[in-house]
Amino acid sequence: MIEYRSIRVGLLGAGSVGSQVARLLLEHSDELAQRVGARIELVGIAVRDTNAKRDADLPPELLTTDVESLIHGSDIVIELMGGLEPARTLVLAAIASGADVVTGNKALLATHGPELFAAAQQVGAQLSYEAAVGGAIPIIRPLRDSLAGDRIDRILGIVNGTTNFILDRMDQTGASLEAALATATELGYAEADPTADIGGYDAAQKAAILASLAFHTSVPVDAVHREGITGVSAEQVESAKRAGYVVKLLAICERLIDDETGDEGVSARVYPALVPREHPLAAVHGANNAVFVEAAAAGPLMFYGAGAGGVQTASAVLGDLVAIARRHVIGGPGTAESTHAELPVLDIGRITTRYAITLEVTDEPGVLEQIAHVFAEHGVSVEQLAQTVAQGSERATLVIGTHEAKESALAETVAALSQSPVVASVASVLRVEGAV
């Protein structure tokens, strides 16, 4: 029987993910010891209420409300509490005590990442966060390590399972946003307050993390352009289907050349977009996540899988834990984050994209000429146009697809169209992404 040294692990939080991490650590301790070369000993689980119901049966003697003592008695601290405080304070305390940290806290990293990474680097600690983006999908480590020698040009990500479930259900069944959200809530995919998901806040935090990592640049979450799905209608989804597209909430991170300075910059943004049905992201159904990476040498890569779930996300946490524990066995400092490029984060007006615009217009001679004049005035070229007129109606519906143009020019075009006397309403504006 091999005698292993012990690496002490303190767990902060025993929610759906934390409970599963604790269960797996306890059930697979022998197997994990064989992989690491040391025994991973769960020395305590910090919780608010030791008597609360858990998703897994945990030994009551491990539960504690004394979080400070747990941190100071641990070699590795796993933070799964969520939120900004007290998580930030406790993670900094763990790092200051000499412990390495594993976290799945996307809000914490997107808001305070530079501060936390600087603290870890100062003392040679490791801060790992695979579970913060994409649940069970391995995307952080591939970007940080496997693709570190490559140049990432663009990332398109479906990184929020709730909104993907809602939009997929609207596409598959014709349901309204409200009906699809009600189903998502009933099945446990949506929280009682779904604002973080349907408002795009969750996806924006993940976009900030992915952009910072991919472009070796600190991208604050406040610099991420954010639009949620609350304005997406069943009619838009049906129209997209007829045109060969599917509507997806995308987190997009890409390198750009600033046309004003000629210098390279980066863009990070979140919004519902039309994705061609031939694109791999169009086939991501239900509450799954996928991240599509375009690298200069490696080419297109897609990472796909469960974007949430207690046991699934626990897999990512344990992957980080095992990697850190192995470093404890062999020695050496933690891997520092690379933000040395420090490229400027460009305003969304600098991006180049395509629009699909749906207009309600008066059905009379000369309308198309006036519409075309608005586009020409702003330097935007029309790629395709479809017109339908309901029987007996005095209005026509125009669906206009543009060629690529600057976002600023496209936005000005839409604003001018809304003021045109022949346009009754701008019914829908969606960007087109992921051309194949």
UniProtKB/TrEMBL annotation:
Entry-linked Pfam families: ACT, Homoserine_dh, NAD_binding_3
Protein's name according to its UniProt entry: Homoserine dehydrogenase
SUPFAM superfamilies attached to this UniProt entry: ACT-like, Glyceraldehyde-3-phosphate dehydrogenase-like, C-terminal domain, NAD(P)-binding Rossmann-fold domains
Entry EC no(s): 1.1.1.3
Keyword Amino-acid biosynthesis: yes
Pathway(s): Amino-acid biosynthesis; L-threonine biosynthesis; L-threonine from L-aspartate: step 3/5; Amino-acid biosynthesis; L-methionine biosynthesis via de novo pathway; L-homoserine from L-aspartate: step 3/3
Reaction(s) this enzyme catalyzes, per UniProt: L-homoserine + NAD(+) = L-aspartate 4-semialdehyde + NADH + H(+); L-homoserine + NADP(+) = L-aspartate 4-semialdehyde + NADPH + H(+)
Family the entry assigns: Belongs to the homoserine dehydrogenase family.
Cofactors: a metal cation
Domain ACT: 356-431
Catalytic class of the enzyme: oxidoreductase
Taxonomy of the source species: Bacteria, Bacillati, Actinomycetota, Actinomycetes, Micrococcales
